[in-house]
Amino acid sequence: MTRIFNFGAGPGTLPTEVLQQIRDELLDWHGLGVSIMEISHRSPEFEEVAAIAEQDLRDLLNIPSHYKVLFLQGGGRGQFSMVPLNLLGANKTADYFNTGFWSKYAIEEARKYGEVNVVADTEATKYRTIPVPNTWHCNPQAAYLHFTSNETINGVEFQSPPNVGNVPLVADMSSNILSRPIDVSQYGLIYASAQKNIGPAGLVVVIVREDLLGKASPLTPSIGDYKIQADFRSLYNTPPTFAWYIAGLVFKWLKRQGGIAAIAEINRRKAEKLYHFIDAHDFYHNPVDPNYRSWMNVIFNLADETCNPVFLTQAKAAGLIALKGHKLLGGMRASIYNAMPEQGVDALIAFMTEFAKKNS
Ligand SMILES: Cc1ncc(COP(=O)(O)O)c(C=O)c1O
Asked: What DSSP letter does each residue of 146-212 carry, written as one string?
């Protein structure tokens, strides 16, 4: 078996151990004679899988008991609609940071349902930093304040959540959930599509403070109504059972790695060594403000952009795939999520060293 290093931004690499376990359990899950994806979501077996996954996530993130954890469908973009539909209430106005392409998409979607006040906007400067707090224009009456904790395309990451008093904080953590410790009690709601640090695509996890439930617009689709889904323990409709099961295996894997503090230490090391290498070589360049560089998505450009195709071809031949930057930005991007081993980053640096020598 040859596993190469997959730097794709999502769906991203999964832990090999988890894939092996899925393979071993696929035809006959725990002596049942069928796979986990072939049984009812209401069976005691699946209910147990679901409950254990939820508990493991609660343990990993220290989620307080007055928060509900939902396992839903529709990915991150689904939540771009569900957040305003569920939380705007009579207020009809919400605050949003515009710090990258994913923030921008979230804002565009929210504008269908209410008024959006943009608190801070870095689009004009190509989304390379996070503005300092004394430049923010917050509305104390806003129903919530939305921010994208890690901008997957632009490689910009909030290093701590914005502190905004009593307005509930809503975070799109699609590309950095579980990558470092967070204090869930600082948030009103957290959502994350699964296909980066949680598991396969098809699942989105929502962590929501109980007092925010029950305010959904009457037009909210029932499958996206947090109160209904909380009352049904996310089993109102048939959930993506296989993805939920795999998320559970990833949570167990994370616990075996020592939990979030331990994985964060590895993530910090991986990111630091890659940025350090890029900064030390004129052949490579990262344009992001060093104070807000993402630990998960490292973007970089080659000094000679005409080398891009050959860089990608030779990287692939060296067992390093999916390094092409997002089409909106060009250049390169190395996504180094939890499941990317440190050896993958070392192999990338070794390849980039040789490539720069040959092409400088
Ligand atoms: C930060 C962020 N938010 C939202 C999304 C959209 O997620 P989905 O494709 O699951 O709708 C992505 C996808 O990459 C993302 O990186």
From this structure: EEESEETTTTEE-SS----TTSPEEEE-TTTTTSS---GGG-SEEEEESTTTTSSTT-EEEEEEGGG
pLDDT at position 1 is 65
Q: How far apart are the first and last CA of the chain?
A: 35
The H or E element spanning position 302 is strand 297-302
Task: Identify the CA nearest to 149 among candidates 139, 140, 159.
Answer: 159
The pTM score is: 0.98
Q: Is 52 exposed, middle or buried (0-12, 13-18, 19+ CB in 10 A)?
A: middle
User: pLDDT tens for residues 170-184?
Assistant: 999 999 999 999 999
Look up residue 113 and give its two tokens. Answer: 């349902």
pLDDT of residue 159 exceeding 80: yes
Work out the number of other CB atoms within 10 angstroms of the CB of residue 279: 13
Q: Which residues contact 15 (CB under 8 A, 6 or more apart)?
A: 250, 253, 338, 339
CA of 58 from ligand 1 middle (Å) equals 22
152 lines ligand 1 (CB under 6 A): yes
Catalytic annotation present for 172: yes
Strand order, beta sheet including 332-335:
284-285, 297-302, 332-335
Backbone angle region of 31, left / alpha / beta, with phi > 0 → left and psi within -120 to 50 → alpha: left
Q: Is 273 considered catalytic here?
A: no
Is 215 annotated in the active site? no
Which 8-state DSSP code applies to residue 261? H
Q: Is 202 touching ligand 1 by the criterion CB < 6 Å?
A: no
Token pair for residue 359? Answer: 């092409």
